[in-house]
Write a structure and sequence with these properties.
The structure holds 2 protein chains of 2 kinds. Chain A is α+β, with helices and mostly antiparallel strands. Chain A has 3 domains: 47 residues, 2-Layer Sandwich (Uridine Diphospho-n-acetylenolpyruvylglucosamine Reductase, domain 2); 116 residues, Uridine Diphospho-n-acetylenolpyruvylglucosamine Reductase, domain 3 (2-Layer Sandwich); 110 residues, 2-Layer Sandwich (Enolase-like, domain 1). Chain A contains 12 helices and 14 strands. In chain A, the strands form 4 sheets. A 5-stranded antiparallel sheet of chain A has the order 4-5-10-6-7. In chain A, strands 11-12-13-14 form a 4-stranded antiparallel sheet, with helices on both faces. In chain A, strand 13 and strand 14 form a beta hairpin. The longest helix of chain A is centred in the last third of the chain and has 25 residues. Chain A is globular, with a radius of gyration of 19 Å. By secondary structure, chain B is α+β, with helices and mostly antiparallel strands. In chain B, strand 14 and strand 15 form a beta hairpin. Chain B has a 7-stranded mixed sheet. A 7-stranded mixed sheet of chain B has the order 4-8-16-15-14-9-30. In chain B, strands 19-27-28-29 form a 4-stranded mixed sheet, sandwiched between helices. Chain B is globular. The chains are: A alpha+beta, B alpha+beta. At the A-B interface, helix 12 of A face helix 4, helix 9 and helix 20 of B. The complex binds flavin-adenine dinucleotide. Flavin-adenine dinucleotide binds next to strand 2, helix 2, helix 7, helix 8 and strand 10 of chain A.
């Protein structure tokens, strides 16, 4: 379990990193927290010729308010920093609720918010949370910047719209609507394991107590983080009662997801968990929304 | 009176070193000029090797040597079988297929070693291993033990013409006759899959051949340093005294490290002698999953006959046992299953038959429990099924069947792993059951708490399962105890240590006899230059077999001390007292001599002694029991299940345990804690999953789930009972595997009780949330 030989660079600025990427492109890999990349290298499943270590770029470590009321998070911000951020707790409680489910404290001190997004593990919490929140990502290649919505960014198993010579720089979380509330829940074999299924839910109530908006996303139920369009449509406009929520959860489990079987869970068990957890998360979000 | 240490929770002598990083583990050995080894292991579970090309690997800078089976020439020999089948077993089939150093024409499981690279660093060695080109012809794979015995199955050994490794039948009484008289016959199929030992420290070796002194030193994570020394000497054509094997601190053994003359163990010394440079090999975690032996893997067809008042009249068990691709460890595991299938019960008639089956999977050898959990699982599950059928409370049906206290020794007329009839030497099961029942609060839970919790929609259940553990088996161990001129005591024994607190428990035994502080007894284990008679650490035998050798040696040293002191102090021995490192006359405390001074007097530099006098205050003693001791216990738990997610939460866990004389209760508790966590792992988290191609799908700690602290019950309450063994002077029994043995049985029982679904029977291990979901769905759909 030793990695194959590689060349190592540790640029001090984003520009230097981009230059290295422009030169080496396909042969290079960005090293963020290393909590996914290093194990894959040690198993020799990844054998990048060049490693570009981003840990010496302080400019990518920040959590700041946006004027609109949202939050911007620099790609190299550690999970642990985000977990302890009062700004995230206030403006993105869903993120705060999901973060402790990611791995263990040791891993969260190294792993980065940007790394999780770029890695695009379908079983990761952060992509599903970003999809639920309608986050967008800032990417840069050379001098060209572009913004991509979370839902469009993840295109398959460990696959995103990032080009080989492109960097993810920032995660932007939009402001939360009034009378909205959120909940996150997951089932993992042991605490800190990748979830068998996880759910992020958000409900915005209108004055009549109906769901003005619903957000529902899943992790670990397919090749990427999934936004449950059918379930959302089914619940939108209705009051969040036990029945409407159960109905929406059943739709999500049946129509919105295409889970795979693996050694830990069959397709049936995953669908069952998806329904159970969607029901629990939506119920909790609804309770919080009406209380709040 | 001499201070009493046996039975006291003395703090561990080894802890300061371990906790401050001062303990030597194999990987801490760094020698000048040391090379590093990496093994190329098969990616195929079954394939013919057509050719191996090592040219590219050999040409890489930093690579010193690459060896394949062909390069070994005459040195390529199958290792000797570690355990032969008991010669006392009659009419058996046994086809020995020992391990081999490197695969020659055929690989038979994923991880079968094919080549070894020796290089200046492990990095280079791994890079080079990737550059070895092996041309394989993949063959059909057999992983399923039932299919392996079908006539058209692919064969692991074509020359055998069958995958049958062994076939053994044994009977106590007459089951068929007993079944005729039964009111109730229950038949079930039970399946127990594989798990790993998953020791914290993987295997490792550092070997140094000194050509100038013609001496070899090997540091090895083994549980059996002495047999390895002797085996290596024989294999390498050296005298036993030219080889020193040191098992330093080892981070967990759990069975696989008892394996000996494994490929790595034979090849690296051979290579070190050729290259005249020390070599280090430290197994990494992935390699441990692919290259270290595993256990469990049995399918049982069990039948039990009961009378209507719940008395078991007989038991019949026919099972298949997976041995993987080789069977170097003989029949130890299936024999243990046979001898533990009657548990704590008076089973007058027992028919037991097994077939051992070769498959294209990793070799199966004992892992903590070593066949015992399987036996306990089947008999305990039968008790539960009978209780349900007959409408008897599960604890009550057990009570009715316990072996009574006056029945010992109990002869089972079934040959066990130590080649002789299984005999329970002693025990007292009734009070053990009562202790566990009280500790778990059985009656209150069943009559008051559970109905309330169920009414509130909770799925919470209880289980209680007794078990036995055959421990302290022979043949023998020895110990040498020396009082040094400093007054400190040196204690040496041949067994190795993998975390069992030997440095404390052994010291307590000696300190009590010699009247010194426990801290003043320095214990050395697992160094063949210090002691070279013995077999090793396995089958919960260290405290019993080495412990009693130490007890005997300490008594003899004590006698020598008294004799010498009597002479020096001019007083009869009866008046002497050994205390605080000195010998004194009881009534005249001033008239005393320190142990150190006495040791010096016993080893004079000039002058004459009586002819026949032995120097020093030293003795060497051996102990070999007539047969193994039987420890016992009763585990009970309360578990809650979330019926939607099938996640479990063990709310309460208790165990009443009897290992005879408890040397150090804190140490015994620690052994039980570890065993329980391993048992929980092997019952609900840990499962080695092979696909139909024989690929291990979870060869990492990411996917192979060892339970964490958060998966353990909030506490483990332990009650000790001390039924002394008549088989050894100390009256002790072993405890190393105890915790792991009852967990499958007690968890299945408690989960069934918690879920309370009609027709749901948990007859397999390990379980998982996903599997519970499937089984529950199936039971519901059957209704
Ligand atoms: C034991 C263990 C348990 C874990 N459990 C979980 C879990 O439960 N949930 C979970 O979500 N994760 C889990 N993880 C993974 C962890 O969260 C990782 O840290 C995360 O997925 C990747 O973040 P990183 O900063 O470590 O990225 P790295 O490992 O450094 O990189 C990951 C990938 O992203 C690329 N990359 C990183 N940053 C950028 C960037 N700015 N621009 C472009 N590409 C980039 C890298 O090139 C690489 O391909 C676990 C990890 C371990 C070791």
């Amino acid at each position: 379990m030793k990695p194959a030989p590689f060349e190592y660079h540790a640029p001090a600025t984003v520009e230097q990193a981009l230059e290295l990427l422009a030169t080496h492109g396909y042969d290079a890999k960005i090293l963020a927290g290393g909590q996914s990349l290093i194990p894959t290298m040690n198993f020799r499943l990844a054998q990048p010729a060049i490693l570009i270590d981003m840990n010496n770029i302080p400019a990518l470590r920040y959590i700041e308010p946006t004027p609109a009321g949202g939050v911007r998070i620099g790609a190299m911000t550690r999970y642990q920093t985000a977990e302890r951020s009062p700004l995230i707790a206030e403006r993105a409680p869903l993120v705060a609720e999901a973060l402790p489910h990611i791995a263990h404290p040791q891993i969260r001190t190294r792993g980065t918010m940007g790394g999780a997004i770029a890695h695009a593990d379908p079983a990761a919490e952060l992509p599903a949370v970003c999809v639920a929140l309608g986050a967008r990502f800032k990417l840069r290649r050379g001098t060209q910047e572009r913004w991509i919505a979370a839902e469009d960014f993840f295109v398959g198993l460990f696959t995103t719209l990032l080009e080989p010579d492109e960097l993810l720089l920032e995660i932007e979380l939009p402001p939360l609507p009034a009378r909205s509330a959120w909940a996150f829940t997951e089932v993992a074999r042991r605490h800190g394991d990748y979830a068998l299924v996880g759910v992020a839910a958000g409900i915005t109530l209108d004055d009549a107590g109906n769901c003005a908006d619903v957000r529902l996303s899943f992790l670990s139920v397919g090749d990427r983080a999934v936004l449950a369009h059918n379930a959302i449509a089914a619940l939108k406009g209705h009051p969040p009662t036990a029945e409407t929520i159960a109905h929406a959860a059943a739709i999500a489990a049946a129509d919105d997801i295409a889970p795979n079987a693996d050694i830990h869970a069959s397709v049936d068990y995953r669908r069952h968990l998806a329904k159970t957890l969607a029901q629990r998360a939506l119920t909790q979000a609804a309770e919080r929304a009406s209380a709040g | 009176m001499t201070a009493k240490y046996v039975g006291q929770p003395v703090k561990r002598n080894e802890d300061p070193r371990l906790l401050t990083g001062q303990a030597l583990f194999v990987d801490d050995v760094h020698l000048p000029d040391m090379l590093h080894a990496a093994f190329l292991r098969s990616d195929y579970a079954h394939a013919r090797i057509l050719s191996i090309d090592t040219t590219a690997a050999k040409e890489m800078p930093g690579v010193v040597a690459v060896y394949t089976a062909e390069d070994l020439g005459d040195f390529w020999q199958p290792s000797p079988m570690i355990v032969q089948p008991p010669p006392t077993l009659e009419d058996i089939v046994f086809n020995p297929r020992p391990q081999i150093p490197l695969a020659k024409d055929m690989v038979r499981h994923i991880g079968d070693p094919v080549a070894v690279v020796i290089a200046e660093s492990r990095y280079i060695a791994e890079d080079a291993a990737e550059q070895i080109w092996v041309d394989y012809e993949p063959l059909e794979v057999v992983t399923d033990i039932e299919k392996a015995l079908e006539p058209d199955s692919p064969l692991v050994y074509e020359d055998l013409g069958t995958n049958l490794a062994s076939h053994v039948r044994q009977e106590k009484g007459n089951y068929a006759a007993a079944a005729k008289k039964a009111d109730l016959i229950i038949k079930r199929r039970m399946v127990i899959d594989r798990g790993a030992a998953a020791a914290m420290e993987n295997r490792g070796i550092v070997v140094d051949w000194d050509a100038k002194t013609q001496h070899m030193t090997m540091w090895n994570t083994t549980q059996a340093p002495i047999p390895i020394r002797n085996g290596l000497a024989a294999t390498l054509g050296l005298s036993e005294h030219q080889v020193r094997v040191i098992a330093p601190f080892v981070g967990g053994g759990f069975g696989p490290k008892i394996m000996l003359l494994q490929p790595e163990e034979v090849l690296l010394p051979w290579a070190a002698m050729r290259l005249c440079r020390p070599i280090k090999w430290i197994e990494d975690r992935r390699e441990n999953f692919l290259g270290t032996t595993q256990e469990r893997g049995q399918i049982h067809a069990v039948e039990a006959a009961f009378s209507k008042d719940g008395k078991i009249l007989g038991l019949k068990d026919i099972f298949l046992h997976d041995t993987g691709a080789y069977n170097p460890y003989g029949l130890t595991i299936p024999l243990n299953t046979q001898t533990h299938s009657m548990g704590v019960y008076d089973v007058p008639n027992f028919y037991t038959e097994f077939k051992v089956v070769f498959t294209n999977k990793m070799i199966v050898t004992p892992v903590r429990g070593a066949g015992r959990p399987q036996g306990i699982f089947l008999v305990e599950r039968m008790m539960d099924l009978a209780a349900k059928e007959l409408g008897i409370d599960p604890v009550e049906i057990r009570r009715r069947n316990l072996i009574p206290a006056d029945a010992f020794p109990v002869h089972h007329s079934i040959i066990g792993q130590d080649f002789i009839e299984a005999i329970y030497d002693s025990g007292n099961f009734q009070p053990l059951v009562e202790k566990a029942r009280l500790l778990i609060g059985y009656d209150k839970f069943v009559t008051e708490e559970q109905p309330k919790l169920r009414a509130a929609g909770k799925h919470i259940g209880i289980g209680l399962a007794p078990f036995v553990e055959s421990t302290g088996v022979g043949p023998y161990e020895g110990a040498r105890i020396t009082v040094e001129s400093s007054g400190k005591v040196n204690l040496v024994t041949g067994v190795g240590t993998q975390g069992q607190s030997h440095f404390t428990s052994f010291a307590q035994i000696a300190a009590e006899q010699l009247g010194v502080a426990v801290q003043d007894v320095e214990v050395t284990t697992g160094d063949t230059d210090q002691f070279h008679w013995g077999t090793g650490t396995f089958a919960s035998r260290g405290a019993v077999v080495a412990g009693n050798a130490i007890f005997a040696a300490a008594k003899r040293v004590r006698a020598k001390i008294l004799a010498k002191a009597s002479e020096v102090l001019d007083a009869p021995e009866e008046e002497l007292e050994l205390k605080d490192g000195a010998i004194r006359i009881a009534d005249i405390p001033e008239k005393s001599i320190s142990l150190g001074e006495l040791a010096m007097l016993a080893n004079p530099l000039r002058g004459a002694v009586e002819p026949g006098t032995e120097p020093g205050l030293e003795a060497t003693e051996y102990f070999g029991p007539k047969y193994g001791t039987t420890a016992s216990g009763v585990a009970a738990m309360i578990v809650e299940v979330d019926p939607d997610t099938m996640l479990i939460d063990i709310k309460k866990f208790v165990i009443a345990h009897d290992c005879g004389t408890v040397i150090n209760p804190m140490v015994v508790d620690g052994q039980i804690h570890g065993g329980v966590s391993m048992g929980i792992g092997h019952s609900f988290y840990e499962q080695l999953i092979y696909d139909e191609n024989g690929q291990l799908l979870n060869a990492s700690f990411m996917d192979y789930l060892v339970p964490r602290s958060t998966d353990m019950p909030p506490s483990i309450e332990i009650a000790h009972q001390e039924t002394k063994s008549p088989l050894n002077p100390m009256g002790s029994k072993g405890v190393g595997e105890a915790g792991a043995i009852p967990i499958p049985a007690v968890l299945a029982q408690a989960l069934e009780n918690a879920l309370n679904i009609d027709g749901l029977e948990l007859l397999e291990m390990p379980l998982s949330p996903g599997r519970l979901f499937e089984l529950a769905q199936a039971a519901k759909n059957r209704d």
